[in-house]
Amino acid sequence: MIRAGIIGSTGYAGQELVRILLGHKDVEIKWYGSRSYIDQAYASVFQNMFQLVPDICKGEDLEQLCEEVDVVFTATPQGLCSSLVSENVLSKVKIIDLSADFRIKDVDTYEKWYGIKHQSPQFIEEAVYGLCEVNRDKIKNARLIANPGCYPTCSFLSIYPLAKAGLIDMKSVIVDAKSGTSGAGRGAKVANLYCEVNESIKAYGVATHRHTPEIEEQLSYASGQEAVINFTPHLVPMNRGILVTAYANLVKDVTEEELRKIYEDAYKDEQFVRFLNAGVCPETRWVEGSNYVDVNVKLDERTHRVIMMGAMDNLVKGAAGQAVQNMNLLFGLPETEGLLMPPVFP
Ligand SMILES: NC(=O)C1=CN([C@@H]2O[C@H](COP(=O)(O)OP(=O)(O)OC[C@H]3O[C@@H](n4cnc5c(N)ncnc54)[C@H](OP(=O)(O)O)[C@@H]3O)[C@@H](O)[C@H]2O)C=CC1
Ligand SMILES: CC(=O)N[C@@H](CCC(=O)OP(=O)(O)O)C(=O)O
């Protein structure tokens, strides 16, 4: 059995990790980490876990946790994981960090977009960006995984096949993205109150959102060119889900059939990326509660642009599901273990 600890188990991403790991036959959760609910029953925080989780919440103590578990998930705010990780910790356990601390290779870029000082830049180079579909082999031997961001996962997987094929102008990419409010976390904020969010939709972080450099970096690796994108996220009145509609200029003439063949080839062996039939647009409701990303592509001959679409559950493939996918790779398990639950509907 793999012994797991979750720092931040009482957040939205953390509680989703608990739900997924409880259904994983090779994992036992040993540590339900919290800041606000120390010594309280986990099931008193999340009543859906009544009679399923008898454990109490514990404070964050990575040095002690290292002695008790094989893998630690940090589902905590930006800056916490980088303030805890050390050579001693990494010599004892695998760390899967759901925050952005180790996603961006250039520390100045991280500090500029996140507005905080990085606490352990010495581990950035070694950290592996945990996008399993692209970095599978590197992930298997890693000690420290930077679990990708939610918007970046959906944006990148929607665009990746054409970026890799060199068919789009990497300075023309526009990503229009929408997220349910669980993406903003469980902490109380006026902007996320029911009356502020319900029956409304708004853009936010326009031209300044911190996921912009993460998406650009990964698209640059995939295409071998410098990617410069416009990324505009929107908050929509639903609990879960991310929808991406991305646009780019084609750099050469191509048919819709050729575009579709590129996607088919890119994703034919990927269990969690579903390339939809022609004409079907991804919808968040068809992936909710699952680790699937649905993608599709459409050629607009009139404008000589391509439209790339994706839908995914921000808490599953965008956070906890992807973290478990990474854990499976780290421990030599089938990548899909514990993750094949079908989407829920309605
Ligand atoms: N929500 C999402 O869709 C996604 C989130 N992520 C990332 O996952 C991480 C968690 O996000 P999310 O679950 O939304 O956030 P939440 O605000 O819902 O949860 C934050 C968690 O971190 C704990 N925490 C906060 N400060 C500390 C601290 N100083 N020491 C120990 N624990 C602390 C909180 O504990 P307590 O509740 O007990 O105070 C809580 O369990 C973030 O880095 C986020 O960027 C990544 C992808 C998607
Ligand atoms: C709706 C909403 O507010 N979403 C969050 C992104 C989700 C998140 O937690 O960020 P990471 O994926 O980088 O971890 C935001 O825009 O800041």
Automatic annotation (TrEMBL):
It catalyses: N-acetyl-L-glutamate 5-semialdehyde + phosphate + NADP(+) = N-acetyl-L-glutamyl 5-phosphate + NADPH + H(+). CDD domains: AGPR_1_C, AGPR_1_N. Belongs to the NAGSA dehydrogenase family. Type 1 subfamily. Catalyzes the NADPH-dependent reduction of N-acetyl-5-glutamyl phosphate to yield N-acetyl-L-glutamate 5-semialdehyde. Residues 3-142 form the Semialdehyde dehydrogenase NAD-binding domain. Pathway: Amino-acid biosynthesis; L-arginine biosynthesis; N(2)-acetyl-L-ornithine from L-glutamate: step 3/4. The keyword Transcription regulation does not apply. It comes from the Bacteria. This is N-acetyl-gamma-glutamyl-phosphate reductase. Pfam families: Semialdhyde_dh, Semialdhyde_dhC_1. It is found in: Cytoplasm. The active site is at residue 150. Its EC number is 1.2.1.38. HAMAP family: ArgC_type1 (MF_00150).
